[in-house]
């Protein structure tokens, strides 16, 4: 089954960017055959909904030192097997536990601008929001 997991904390400004993006794309994702999960920071909820042979898209905020709003994608197999330096604040919770599952898919990371208490995205991310949406859709349309 094809599943999308949005990870992040919407009470911490840009850390919740994936939740905002996936909420906006839910209809599109469902039309593409994806089951949508707003995992937020509940990794156990996410893991309970992942089965062997699922195709996953995990969307999350990242801090790689790029310009805020930069969208990147990695194959899950490369992230899971290499145990590389965390690309996401939530890497330890969900991604490190995916090695127990036989899944394929992609991790889509959105570079943060600001993480602090607040329900609003930072002004930088708000200014790039439509571009971020388009880039995420483009990545989703290319992965199989």
From TrEMBL:
Which keywords appear in this protein's UniProt record, sorted alphabetically? Aspartyl protease, Hydrolase, Protease
GO BP terms: namely: protein processing
What InterPro entries has UniProt attached to this entry?
A: Pept_HybD-like_dom_sf, Peptidase_A31
Recorded superkingdom: Bacteria
From the Swiss-Prot or TrEMBL record, what is one GO molecular function term? aspartic-type endopeptidase activity
Query: Which Pfam family is one of those matched by this entry?
Result: HycI
The entry's family comment says: Belongs to the peptidase A31 family.
| Official protein name in the record | Hydrogenase maturation protease
